[in-house]
Every structure is written in structure tokens, then in C-alpha cells.
Specification:
It is a single chain. The chain is mainly alpha-helical. The protein has one domain. It contains 4 helices and no strands. Helix 2 runs antiparallel to helix 3 and helix 3 runs antiparallel to helix 4. It is elongated, with a radius of gyration of 17 Å. The mean pLDDT is 89. Keywords: Membrane, Transmembrane, Transmembrane helix.
Amino acid sequence: MNSERLQYLKLNKNIFLAFLVSMTVSALGANYFADQIELLNSTITLMIDHSVYYAVFGTLFYLDNKKKYILENGKINRLLLKSDLLKIVLSFGSSEIIYSIVRWGVQYELLILNYDAYMASVISHILAAIVFFIVINLGVNFTKLFKNKNR
């Protein structure tokens, strides 16, 4: 398997695992705040979701890529790190905006329709995650995150 495909697989694995953990924790949060109004429940759940997701994803991404940015002399390749961070921010930025809108909106509507809070959280998370996977992979491909001449 070539390096580019392996990098895409690692990225998607990290995103998937982070989504699983954040979905579980945010569903628990939604259930905990079930007695709150729908607007507040959706907002708090989204904040929990983002906090857990970025903590898990950041850790997994770091563990998979920490050696990539170290030069032979032991110093950090700041140029490559800066370039990749910019590509990641650009890819994730648009994906996160779309994810947040879908996640919050679907959960809010499901709560209005009297779904249990945890179920509304899980359903909205899954739907938003599907959209996120599509957009993030298009963004990573567009920014050429894994096609760097310096590697």
C-alpha cells in the first residue's frame, strides 16, 4: 500500500475513533441535560461533542504523525509542520462548520419531535459524521495534505 493511501487510512481511522468516543460522551451529556429546553440541550451537547472529539483526534493524530516532523538531526521540521497544520485547519474548518450546522440542527429538530435526548444525539451525530467524512476527505484531497514534495 502506498504512503498516501496509508495516510488517508490513518486520518480516517483517527476521525472514526474520535467520532465514536465523542458520540458516546455527547449522548451521555444529552441524556444528562434532557430536562433542559431543546435549544440548550442541543448547544451543550455540541460543545461536549467538539471538546471530546478534538481531544481524542488530536491525540491520535499526534501519535500517528509525531515522527514525520522530526529531522535527522533531531530538530522539528517547522516548515513541513506549518504547511501541514495550515492544510489541516483549512480542511477541518469547512468540514466543522458543516458538521456543526447539521449536528445541531438535526438534534434540535429531533428533540422538538420528542425523541429521547440520547437518541436524538446519536442520530444527529451519525448523520453529521457522514457529511463530515465526505467533506473532510474532499478537503484533504483538495489541499493535498498527503502530497508534499518535502517528504
